[in-house]
């Protein structure tokens, strides 16, 4: 029912005439985003954590160049990653549209920012897989949608190297101390990755446990450098 309703709305107001973040009708001079949402898509500024790229505020964080979360992680658990936007305003709305509203084009406005954060000298983009059941319900994987848009813009190939071995709960709905166990050993490598430098692409990085869990498996199978690139960085819930 909902799908039929959405299809009728799509015919009356085609997607390319509506702001991808807020859904308002676009004026002729606007493209993909209305002016208000475009103004709200601001890259993270100032000093950033040299591991996860989070903006640093506290004096002790600034002194070390590490955020509170990364400071307490042992070296082997620090997976370096870039992300252009905080998980707020327009960026969060685009991620929501991409994930829950079937608006795959919502990946596009995030791509120029992600391209700026793309590390040099890497071989391929690796999407974070969904569990097969969730992918069936959603119909696509938002991480793959970001990989495809980023692949087109950067020329980097996509290596669909991971499979989710069990269903996990959504990380953003869990408390910080539940997240590691939720995704631990939840992935397996299904493509050769030996000797490769890989970028794990996802929509949001919060505690980084999902990325760490993926990176652990890729390193175990011989990848030589694994980083992450996400559209946004969410505040770590406590
Ligand atoms: Zn808008
Ligand atoms: Zn950090």
Question: Could you characterize the architecture of this molecule?
Answer:
The chain is an alpha/beta fold and 238 residues long. The chain folds into 2 domains: 1-39, no CATH class; 43-233, 3-Layer(aba) Sandwich (Rossmann fold), CATH 3.40.50. Helix content is 35%, strand content 13%. It contains 10 helices and 7 strands. It has helices at residues 2-12, 35-39, 59-64, 68-71, 89-100, 111-116, 132-138, 142-154, 176-183, 209-220; strands at residues 81-82, 85-86, 124-127, 162-164, 187-189, 197-205, 225-233. The strands form 2 sheets. Strands 1, 2, 3, 6 and 7 form a 5-stranded parallel β-sheet that branches. Strands 4-5 form a two-stranded antiparallel ribbon. Helix 10 (209-220) links the parallel strand 6 and strand 7 (225-233). The longest helix has 13 residues, at 142-154. The radius of gyration is 18 Å and the shape is globular. The termini are far apart. The model has no long low-confidence stretch (mean pLDDT 89). It binds zinc ion (2 copies). One zinc ion binds at residues 49, 51-52, 54, 66-67, 69-70.
Task: Show the helix and strand layout.
Elements: H1 2-12, H2 35-39, H3 59-64, H4 68-71, E1 81-82, E2 85-86, H5 89-100, H6 111-116, E3 124-127, H7 132-138, H8 142-154, E4 162-164, H9 176-183, E5 187-189, E6 197-205, H10 209-220, E7 225-233
Parallel strand pairs: 1-7, 2-7, 3-6, 6-7
Antiparallel strand pairs: 4-5
The site of one zinc ion has 8 residues, from helix 4.
């Amino acid at each position: 029912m909902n799908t039929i309703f959405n299809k009728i709305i799509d015919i009356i107001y085609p997607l390319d005439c509506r702001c991808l973040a807020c859904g308002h009708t676009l004026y002729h001079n606007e493209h993909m985003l209305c002016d208000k949402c475009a103004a709200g898509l601001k890259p993270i500024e100032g000093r950033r954590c040299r591991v996860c790229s989070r903006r640093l505020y506290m004096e002790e964080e600034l002194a070390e160049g590490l955020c509170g979360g990364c400071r307490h992680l042992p070296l082997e658990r620090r997976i370096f990653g870039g992300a252009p936007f905080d998980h707020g305003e327009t960026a969060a709305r685009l991620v929501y549209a991409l994930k829950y509203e079937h608006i795959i084009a919502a990946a596009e406005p995030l791509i120029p920012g992600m391209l700026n954060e793309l590390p040099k000298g890497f071989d391929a983009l690796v999407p974070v897989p969904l569990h097969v059941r969730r992918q069936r319900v959603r119909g696509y994987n938002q991480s793959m949608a970001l990989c495809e848009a980023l692949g087109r813009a950067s020329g980097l190939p996509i290596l669909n190297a991971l499979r989710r071995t069990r269903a996990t709960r959504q990380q953003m709905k869990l408390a910080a101390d539940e997240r590691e166990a939720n995704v631990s050993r939840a992935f397996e490598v299904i493509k050769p990755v030996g000797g490769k430098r890989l970028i794990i692409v996802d929509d949001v990085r919060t505690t980084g446990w999902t990325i760490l869990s993926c990176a652990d498996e890729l390193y175990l199978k011989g990848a030589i450098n694994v980083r992450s690139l996400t559209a946004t960085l969410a505040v770590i819930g406590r």
